[in-house]
# Entry
Amino acid sequence: MKTTLLKISFIFLFLTLMGAGCEKEEELAPYHAQGKIIEVTGGCYGEIVLIEVENPSGIGLPGTFSEPGKEDEAITYRNAIGVPYFSKIGIHESVPQTIGTWFYFEYRELTNEEKENLFISSNPPLICPTNIISPTNAPLIITKIISYK
# Structure
C-alpha cells in the first residue's frame, strides 16, 4: 500500500513539475491585446497614443523615437501600435491617456478614411518647419477598453 501511494505521489509530483516548467504566453481572444502607453505625441507628429503591446506579439512594429534635441530621452520599443487620441475614437474621458497606463483592450484595423483623418492634430493641418517623422508604429484603433490600471 505504501509503495503504491509513493508511486502515485511521485507521478503526481513529476507531472506538476513538468507543467510548471512549460510557461506559455496566455492566449487572448482574437483582436484582443494587452499593453501600456509609452508615448503620447502631438503637433507635427500627429495625435498618436503609442502603445507597447505585451501580448500578442507581432501586431506592432519595433522602433526608437525621440524629439529633435532630446535624443538622450529616446524610447525604444519592440511591438508598438499607434492609436488616435481617445477623445477622437469615443473612449470615455475617465480612461487615462497617460504614459505608463496599462490596458487590456479590443482593437481593429483602421479604414482608409480613418487613417487620413484621425491622426491629424489640427484643422487645417500644421505647417511644420522641418521634416518631422512620426514614431514607427502599426496604426490600429481601439474599439473597447476592457480594463486598465
Observations:
- The longest helix spans residues 2-21.
